[in-house]
Amino acid sequence: MLNESNKKVILKIIGAAVVVFILVYLAIIIIGPGEGSLDDVIKDINVNTVPHPMGQVFVPPDLNGSLTEILPEISKYPPQVNNSTPSYIEIFSSPEKAGSGTDGWLTEVARDFNNASITIDGKQVSVRLRGIPSGEGADYITSGKYLPDAYTPSNELWGEMITSKGVKAELVRKRLAGNVAGILLTKSKKDELVNKYGAINTKTISNAVAKRELAMGYTNPFASSTGLNFLISALYTFDSSNLLSDKAKAGFESFQTNIPLVAYTTLQMRESAKSGVLDGFVLEYQTYVNTPDIRYYEFTPFGFRHDSPMYAIGELSAEKMKILNEFVEFSQQEKYHTLAKDYGFNGFNEYQSEAGPVSGDVIIQAQKLWKEKKKPICAVFVADVSGSMMGEPLNNLKDSLLKGQYYIGEDNMVGLVSYSNDVNIDLPIAKFDLNQRASFAGAVNDLQAGGGTATFDGIAVAMKMIQDQRVADPNLRPIIFVLSDGETNEGNSLNDIKDIVEDLGIPIYTIGYNANIPALQAISSINEAASINADTDDVVYKLRNLFNAEM
After folding, report:
1. Which end of the chain is more exposed for a tag (fewer CB within 10 A), N or C?
2. What CATH number has the domain bearing residue 77?
């Protein structure tokens, strides 16, 4: 029992708590949002809405046909191994085996081959090896911009695609070194799904994602071998007899609607996974084995094998064909099988895909379906028009936006903000139909440089625009693209808005022009987005891949 003295003390405490609650409530109502809120940041920014005339929009009749223009010169990918003789073949290889260290299996094979003084028809022969992503290698080949003599992507899906586009590609060997793609899940999520579904496979994952039981990420199937594999495998689970049937499309749409992340790069996806945002993601086994900081995820193989097939490209001469066959046989020596295993290859040799061969035409249609069925994006482009962007940086920024916009789907919502000392809303958010594209082009063409650099003010205004738009449509997925040189000398700082960005969870992709790249990376890293250096001749190609992944 409480005595009278204790009762009075308790009543006083309760009374004080009630008074504090009322004061706090009144402060919120009368004063408004507290310090550090987005509204509090916005009220101190000078924001102007600037009208612009509509520009002209020229839509290329075939975006793939423009690849020749937007692909960088092949010098961007210098040979990992150079030929040592006049008689040689050039090979495009996926980077997980044509890099260095544990990613350098084929690099070491090629060096040894060139040092072996092998002769064919009385001539000493050699190879030139370029490490190049499978998707980009396929783009070089199908566009005709640069043709190697041989091509070894991660899996056969790329070979089917280039063949369907009219390229002569003869499969010389199905497997150079064994590898598989895998679904990586946290142990707790894996146990949960096994208890419910009995096993982990692509069908299990597809069902769990569609029912919002799993936060899953995968990589862009226009550029990533594992992402492409996952796309085709997911469609197969919905209708194994016809990947493009109405049943498959409906199933895939329910799945894709609930995917939180399709990553521009594997690195971006890994960072998202490490942050705890994802329950699972996809990755090749060889990469998984060589990445200790993600080993707490458990690996389950899925889909088509990634056995590094080798293709002869085009009409090779008899001599080149002999060199290619000699190189393939050289790579299959026991010492190179051992080396491959040491570097993480040749795991899961017993694993076989449930799906049979898929034609290149079906794969290409599946990519188009994937782009159409993605959850609509609400995106704001934030363009730096400060004095430091004057001249070439701003001209490059405009050029990349005007060319890159053709890879943005019309179902997305797009707006444009520019900033110097103040912030201009150059294009309010609207559906990216033909009128909005023309307005976007006109606004971009009108951008002029001058003044200071209030980067984080521009980002804050973009976040506010997106927040307001999502009131009307909460299902829109938000994203911000910041195009800048990375320097900030006006307005708010990164520290002023970092917590807000984290709380809202809006990924901010940064694209740097003559830029302080680390400063931009610091912005993108807040919510595990990617940062692109635009001071290269492949910036539009990079934007194409980014917009394909996101929009």
Report:
1. N
2. 3.40.190.10
